[in-house]
Amino acid sequence: MSKAKTDIIVISDLHLHVRSDSSVVADFARLLRSKKAGKLIINGDLFDLDQVAGERKAGEGAYRAVNRVRAILNRFEDLSACLYEWIDRGGQIVWLPGNHDAELCLPEVQKLIVKRMNLDPARVRFETDAYREDDIHIEHGHQRDPDNRFIPDTKTAVAKERLSAFPLGCLTTRFLLCRIPAYTNQGDNHHTPNKVLIRVIRDYGWATPRMVGLYILAALRISFQAMRARRLRDVERQSTMFSPFRVLSRMYLDRVVVTALLAGFIIMGLTGILASSDLPSLTSKFALAAGLPCIAILLWPPTRKQRYRHRDRLGCRLASRDLRRKGAKIVIMGHTHYAEQHSGPHGTYLNPGAFFQASPSGRPYVTISGQVARVDRLAADR
Q: Which residue has the higher pLDDT, 337 or 273?
């Protein structure tokens, strides 16, 4: 296999945890071994350290993060092997944390990675929220997303080792998503619960009420953390975690409650009608009448859907525009799981998308050679 000359490779969002598909690591290793060793930028979320099912206290703290990383490296030995080979062939690694592996900011986790992979510390560099090289700016992008922003920055927030310092996206995974068997993230967080509910019914059938209960419980737990965050000064106004009411609104819990009320009113009304051989009772009429406002609320177009949909993409694009106007010629972000490339008079914005999401055209990543950057695809192994 020929080895194309590549100065910089940027890869993002592998989301590795102990239950990940092994083909993600196999393709990652195949990509690195097909390239001439240069500078590899791991642009956040190589690991998914929010996968904490079975852990106490939802897995916060350096000790538990170290154990999680160690378990992932034990599960995917080829990950360590390919990164060691990359360094051994003269390459360098720049490692940025994402919102789902923010604990990479912790010295204990960094030390484990270097030691466990047997990497040369002089050729591995851990950054915090961004990496700048000449006129190239690279960051994961979660700090541009109110749902996943750490306050005031990722390193400072993670060092507090408490859940109230984590953003909504992380807590949703820790309290809910990693505890639902067979759940696959299809970007439902950008939609109202209707799409999620339909898929939950399809996947879980009679267990759907339990799943809905877990959702409501998770929303309440995150709201409690939002109250703690205000008290402990772990948030700023631009964060979704600024107040419990903002959390409940973002998770559409108000519409879930209205749906439950509507179901209760309908059952109450129909029960009264069926139990009475005469005209419907006053209670039945009241219950059915009370359900009308609920129907109106649910039928009213949820303006929040437009406000929340692709808010992460928009935040990254706006930040990229500002950075390019300030002198950056190439701006690269990840986080959104959406590969894109835009060029303009002030430079180029690229997003490699999520490497763990294989498409018919292959797994996405970014290559930079000189002043030319582009989104490439690793074709499926045949």
A: 337
